[in-house]
Design a protein that fits this description.
Elements (H helix, E strand, L loop, with lengths): L20 H17 L5 H16 L16 H5 L34 H5 L6 E2 L1 H5 L13 H4 L8 E2 H5 L5 H8 L16 H7 L10 H5 L7 E2 L5 E8 L4 E7 L11 E7 L4 H30 L10 H4 L3 H9 L14 E3 L9 E4 L7 E10 L2 E2 L15 E2 L4 E2 L5 E2 L5 E8 L2 E14 L2 E13 L9 E3 H6 L3 E3 L5 E2 L1 H4 L5 E3 L5 E6 L2 E6 L3 E6 L18 E9 L4 E12 L2 E12 L3 E7 L7 E4 L18 E13 L2 E4 L2 E4 L4 E2 L1
Parallel strand pairs: 3-10
Antiparallel strand pairs: 1-2, 4-5, 5-8, 6-7, 6-9, 9-11, 9-12, 9-13, 14-15, 15-16, 16-18, 17-20, 18-19, 21-22, 22-23, 24-25, 24-32, 25-26, 26-28, 27-29, 29-30, 30-31
């Protein structure tokens, strides 16, 4: 075991040119003989010999050429007092100083510390056998077990660094190191080293080690590094009444196993409504928090059992105590105040697609995706930990849809049901969402109403009583009829407003009218069920709807909608106008000179004014749908494509 030595008196001499170990041995041997015999014979020569040896040792140039050292004439005679000195040098022998001998200089050890004392093989570690020889082995406390010392990392041996940090409860060690009692360990306060601060600091990387980070200081610190998601798309699936959000990258085959995603959507139009809901949630949260706080205070201030520490002694800081208590009694989470962006999912998602049915109708939604992982993000990458998801790191940068925002429109369909002049019967169908917590389901709801001179307004907002009076029926997205009274809440109100008034019946059907689109001849063919539209997809660029047909289908009113990107802005252009059979529908629209019949909305759903549109000077939008080729039964033909009278054509 190599140890530091203190400086010895002979250190300055060795290696000396003439080997002297043999001489020293001889002198010691002779001196021992003389002392043992108690005889003073030859002491003068012995003294001279020692003096000469010392002189030779003090001479760094001593060698074979130096004078012989006088020795006692006969060693044997020296040991036998009654015999005279008769020592003769054997023929061919050499003087002692000429013999090949070596040094063996012994220097006393410096004082050892505890670690070095038990490091018997001087390899800089305690192995399990060496640990068993220490006074710690077998103690009933934390420091009595080898595995409690072996932490940095767990490698089957105890380093000097680990020895300096003996096992004890993390709470005790942290509190002792936290000299300024601020709840953090920092290098600038001299509580830990700069290296420890760097190695122990976890998200958020703030240069401060809190107790949670301290507890995890020796845990593996695998860091992940990946780029943001890409190719985010959102489109409506009208068959299932879902907005399908998809994205690509990073490749899940090479990404961390715990990689997940959080979705958000931008909906400024719903902020006011969500604020009302949020205030109710805050009241519920306050009540839950007061109950939780009472339970916590009782736990924290409870008396300890005899011989044990109380919870307040173990966790003197309230934040630490609350964290510990929340492990078994979850602390209520305050609902975040609504903003333009709202979360879509409350738990992280796996996979690269999400089908959202929680939206509101006629709201402009822009979707965005954020990544989440339980793995440590690479230093330098921004990530935050949400209080509601304490085990997850959420990347704050949103990646919004590359295409245009999504709006789900809800049109009341009308069916010719029968006539008994002067009255007529019309069935109306619309989509309605039923929500329960985070669960949402869409249904098609149908009511039937009799109209006539005394009741000419078609549609309105109907509560449960009004729905039952109108023989309400409900169908799920698969077309299966369900029990409306079992599914609809008691406070349900469904909007069946159409904007039309009943005028009269005729052999061909009903004649209804509105100030916005004029007369609408509801053909008798609408008595038949509509053939479901199968559009290529609602994310196509042009949407065509028929708002009214009149004059025996020789003329019709249409609504055309197209998303366009002007610079970095997505705009929704809505053109409304009439066209005679065989004539073109729509045309080119220059935004800063849009004119009557054109409405432009931005990506938040806001209608832009003429002054707002000036920034889009010279930006022209193609709003041409093709020719109106007439109506047959309940099928409209535009630009050579057919669609239902109450359906939508995507070009």
């Amino acid at each position: 075991m190599a140890q530091a030595k203190s400086s010895g008196a002979l250190a300055q001499y060795g290696p000396v040119a003439a080997p002297l170990a043999g001489v020293v041995f001889a002198i010691i041997f002779i001196a021992g003989a003389v002392v043992t015999s108690g005889i003073s014979e030859g002491t003068e020569k012995l003294s001279a010999t020692v003096a000469t040896v010392r002189k030779q040792m003090d001479n760094p140039k001593a060698g074979e050429s130096e004078s012989d050292i006088p020795l006692v004439d006969n060693v044997t005679a020296s040991l036998t007092p009654d015999k005279g000195d008769n020592w003769t040098t054997p023929q061919g022998s050499r003087n002692l100083l000429a013999l090949p001998i070596t040094w063996d200089v012994q220097m006393e050890d410096a004082e050892k510390d505890e670690f070095a004392y038990y490091d018997e093989n001087a390899d800089g570690y305690w192995d399990p056998l060496e640990f068993q020889r220490t006074p710690y082995f077998g103690r009933p406390t934390d420091d009595g077990k080898f595995e409690n010392w072996d932490r940095d990392p767990t490698d089957g041996q105890i380093s000097r660094k680990e020895h300096k940090d003996p096992p004890r409860s993390n709470r005790e060690a942290f509190d002792e190191a936290d000299t300024n009692d601020d709840g953090f360990l920092t290098a600038k306060d001299g509580e830990i080293t700069t290296e420890e601060e760097y190695n122990w600091d976890r998200h958020p990387f703030d240069g401060k080690i809190d107790f949670t980070e301290y507890e995890k200081r020796y845990d593996p610190k695998d860091e992940v590094d990946f780029g943001p998601v890409s190719n985010v798309q959102a489109r409506l699936d009208p068959a299932t009444m879902e907005i399908v959000v998809s994205w690509s990258d990073p490749d899940l085959a090479t990404a961390p196993a715990d990689l997940a995603y959080m979705l958000e959507r931008r909906a400024p139009e719903t902020v006011a409504k969500r604020m009302t809901e949020w205030r109710k949630k805050v009241q519920e949260y306050n009540a839950k928090y007061r109950d939780w706080e009472a339970r916590f205070e009782k736990w924290w201030n409870a008396e300890a059992a005899e011989g044990q520490k109380s919870n307040k002694q173990l966790f003197p800081r309230r934040p630490d105590a609350e964290k510990e208590f929340a492990k078994t009694d979850a602390k209520p989470v305050q609902p975040p105040q609504p903003s333009e962006w709202e979360p879509v999912n409350t738990t992280p998602l796996t996979g690269n697609e999400y089908r959202d049915n929680s939206f509101d109708l006629d709201v402009t939604y822009t979707y965005a995706v954020k990544m989440a992982t339980k793995s440590n993000p690479k230093r330098g990458q921004r990530a935050v930990q949400d209080e509601a998801l304490p085990d997850w790191y959420i990347y704050p940068d949103r990646v919004a849809t590359e295409g245009h925002p999504v709006v789900v429109r809800n049109r009341v369909e009308m069916k010719w049901s029968g006539a008994a002049p002067p009255n007529g019967t019309i069935a109306m169908v619309t989509w309605h969402k039923v929500s329960s917590g985070d669960t949402h389901s869409w249904y098609r709801v149908q009511v039937t109403e009799i109209f006539g001179p005394d009741n000419d307004v078609i549609g309105g907002k109907f509560n449960m009583a009004a729905l039952r009076d109108r023989s309400v029926k409900m169908f799920d997205t698969a077309g299966t009829e369900v029990n409306a009274t079992e599914i609809l809440p008691a406070d349900t109100e469904i909007d069946f407003t159409t904007g039309f008034k009943f005028v009269t019946t005729s052999g061909k059907g009903f004649l209804i009218s509105s100030r916005e689109v004029g007369d609408f001849e509801l053909p008798k063919a609408t008595q038949q069920a509509a053939t479901p539209d199968t559009p290529a997809g609602s994310d196509d660029s042009l949407e065509v709807r028929c708002l009214a047909v009149k004059s025996g289908a020789k003329e019709a009113t249409f609504e055309l909608t197209r998303w366009t990107k002007a610079g970095d802005d997505w705009l929704r252009v809505i053109w409304t106008g009439s066209a005679a059979s065989g004539k073109e529908i729509g045309g080119d629209v220059q935004l800063d000179k849009a004119g009557a019949g054109v409405v432009v909305k931005d990506a938040t759903g806001k209608t832009l004014s003429a002054s707002d549109l000036k920034k889009y000077k010279d930006h022209t939008v193609d709003m041409k749908a093709g020719t109106f080729d007439g109506l047959k039964d309940r099928t409209v033909t535009v630009g050579g494509s057919d669609f239902d009278l109450f359906g939508t054509l995507y070009q």
